[in-house]
Design goal:
The structure is a single chain. The protein is α+β, with helices and mostly antiparallel strands and 147 residues long. It has 2 domains: 82 residues, F0F1 ATP synthase delta/epsilon subunit, N-terminal (ATP Synthase, domain 1, Sandwich); 55 residues. It has 3 helices and 10 strands. It has a 5-stranded mixed β-sheet with strand order 2-1-9-8-5, with no helix packed on it. It has a 5-stranded antiparallel β-sheet with strand order 4-3-6-7-10. The longest helix has 23 residues. It is globular. The model has no long low-confidence stretch (mean pLDDT 85). It is a peripheral membrane protein.
């Protein structure tokens, strides 16, 4: 039996996943980070992207997280995101509706930037999250949820 580490993924709204994993892939500002049991302690900033939890039975469960933080301890990985999507969420979301919403978000960003009420970093974060979320949902729907 492979060594495992406990993984906790939570969003601002609810717990998303708690379980054991042999390997976890996490999107961070410094790039994609792979974590196994007994990993060095790390604290990092999440960027929007896919978290892949490799389970002991060989299956991989995928989640999409927004901005947040990840804390890695030798036997625990804690991912705390502003929001997160499960594979089931991806199946239930309409990519066309998300694209339309992205257009609205672009208008929102432009309106606030013109009034000087939104800095470039905040605007960029809104759009990066929206674009990455849409790409992930499309990939989940086209691949039937599995890679």
């Amino acid at each position: 039996m492979a060594m495992t580490t406990r993984v906790d993924i939570v969003s601002m709204e609810k717990p998303i996943f708690t379980g054991k994993a042999t390997f976890v892939t996490i999107p961070t500002e410094a790039g994609e980070m792979g974590v196994t049991a007994r990993h060095t302690q790390t604290l990092s900033v999440l960027r929007p992207g896919e978290v892949r939890v490799h389970q002991d039975d060989g299956s991989i469960v995928r989640y999409f997280v927004g901005f947040g933080v990840v804390e890695v301890q030798p036997h625990v990985v804690s991912i705390i995101a502003d929001w997160a999507l499960t594979e089931e969420d991806a199946k239930n979301l309409d990519p066309n509706e998300l694209e339309a919403r992205m257009g609205e978000e672009e208008d929102y960003v432009q309106e606030y930037e013109q009034r000087g009420q939104l800095d470039f970093t905040s605007a960029e974060m809104i759009m990066v999250e929206a674009e990455e979320r849409l790409k992930w949902i499309k990939s989940m729907r086209s691949a039937g949820g599995r890679h």
